[in-house]
Amino acid sequence: MATAAAPDSSLLSLLYRSYPNVISPDATEPDYLHATPKIFSQTSYGEAEEADVKQWLNTVSGLKTALAKDEKPVLESILAQLNTHLATRTTLLGAKPSVADVAIYALVAPLVEKWSPEERTGEKGYHHIVRHIDFIQNSKVFSLQIPEEEKVVIDVNDVRFVPQPIDPKEEKERKKREKANAQNPEAAAEKPLVVGQGKPGKDQSKAAEAASAGPPQDQQEGKEGEGSQGSQACCCSCCPPPRPQLSTCVSATSCALSTTPMPTPSSSPPSTAVTPPGSDNTSLDEETGKTVRTVCSGLNGLVPLEEMQGRKIVAVCNLKPVTMRGIKSAAMVLAASPRVPEGGDAHAGPVELVSPPADAPAGERITFQGWSEGEPEKQLNPKKKVWETFQPGFTTNGDLEVCFDSSAVPAVAGQDKPAIGKLATASGVICTVKSLKDATVR
C-alpha cells in the first residue's frame, strides 16, 4: 500500500493527494500543526484541542523514532496508550478530525496491515487502533484519496476477543494523569506518548458516555433485571391492576448527541449526550460540568454517522440499562421508520431521528401534550412491558410532527385525555422528523 513508504514522505504525499488546495506540492516541511483548521475549515478548534493536536504530532515523532530504532518496548507502550485513548473516541480529539489522525494513519496503517488477526482483535490486540484506521481510510469526514487496493483490508466481522469495559475508576485516574501532563508540557515532552485533553464527553463528544439510540427493545427484554422504582400495584385479587400512565412511564429528554463506532466492530455505535442533572446511570463530565450518559444503538447503516454527530435528539432515559459488547447502554434514542406489515423487517426502510426544537436546552424533559402530568418513574420494570404497552401509540402525522395516538393503546382507553398528544417542550414547540409521515416511532 502507498502508506508503507517512509513516514514523512508517506504523510506528505497523502496530504497533498487529499488536500491539494492546502498542502503545496513543493512543500517539504509543511506546518502540520496549523494545517488542521485549513483542511477541516468547517470545524472549529479551541486552544485545548490545538494543544492536543500538537501533542499527538509529537507522539507521531516519538513513534517514528521507535520504529526506526526498532525499540519494541517503546513502540508497544505508545501503541497501548493510543489504543486506550481511542477506546472512547472516534478520532484523537474525540469526534473532530485533525491532521494528527492522518499522521497516525500514515504511520500506523502499515503496521496494522502486517498484524495477524490475533494482533488486531485478539485478547491482547489493538482493537481500537484497528477500528480507527478503518474509520480514517473510509470516512467522508476525512475524504482521504486512497485507492481501494491501497487501503488496509480489515474484516469487521473477524473479532477474536471482545474487550471488557474500561473500569470507571481507572479511566478517571487516567484522565487526571492526562490533564496533569497537558498542564505540564515540559514533563509531557520528555515522553514519546501523547496524553490529549480531549475527553470522551465534550469532543466526542464524549463518545462513550452519552445518549444515542438505545438497543432494540427485544435485546433489552432478555437482559433487563427487576425492579421499577415507581408506585406499587395492589396485590389482592379483588382489585383490577392500575392502568399505566404515559406521563409517569416514558421519560423523554432533549439531548445533545455525539457518536462513535463501537470499540469492537459492530452495528451499534456508542454515543455521548447531555442528560438531566441528577439522573441515574450518568456521569459528570469534569471539563464541561454537564451530566452525560452512554447508550448503544442499532442505527449504524440506517442513519449516517455524520448525521448523528453533534446534533440534538430525543432520548427515553428511564428504561433499564443493558450491557452490549461490554458497554452499558443507558437510554434509547427515538427514531421514526415506515410502518411494516406484521412479521416484516422493521429496519428495511429509511430511519429518521426525532428532532427536538433547535433551541431546546440539553436535558429538558419533553412530554406529549395532554399527557404530561406527574413525575416519571426513575426506571421502568421490564417485566411489566411498559414500553411495549405504549410504543404502538408513538407515531408521526401528516405535518411530520411526533405524536401519541391513544387509540392504538388499549391500556389507556377511556381516560379523559386527548386522542392525539403532540411531543413538545414545556414552551409548546413540537418535536418533528425530516420527511416520514404517518410513520412509527420507537
Automatic annotation (TrEMBL):
MF (Gene Ontology): tRNA binding
The keyword Electron transport is assigned to this record: no
Xref: InterPro entries: Arc1-like_N (IPR053836), Glutathione-S-Trfase_C_sf (IPR036282), NA-bd_OB-fold (IPR012340), tRNA-bd_dom (IPR002547), Tyrosine-tRNA_ligase_regulator (IPR051270)
Top-rank taxon: Eukaryota
Domain TRNA-binding: 258-367
Keywords in alphabetical order: RNA-binding, tRNA-binding
Start and end residues of each stretch annotated as Disordered: 165-226, 257-289
Pfam families cross-referenced by the UniProt entry: Arc1p_N_like, tRNA_bind
Example of a GO cellular component annotation carried by this entry: methionyl glutamyl tRNA synthetase complex
Gene3D superfamilies according to UniProt: 1.20.1050.10, Nucleic acid-binding proteins
PANTHER family: AMINOACYL TRNA SYNTHASE COMPLEX-INTERACTING MULTIFUNCTIONAL PROTEIN 1 (PTHR11586:SF33), TRNA-AMINOACYLATION COFACTOR ARC1 FAMILY MEMBER (PTHR11586)
Protein name: tRNA-binding domain-containing protein
Gene source species: Penicillium cosmopolitanum
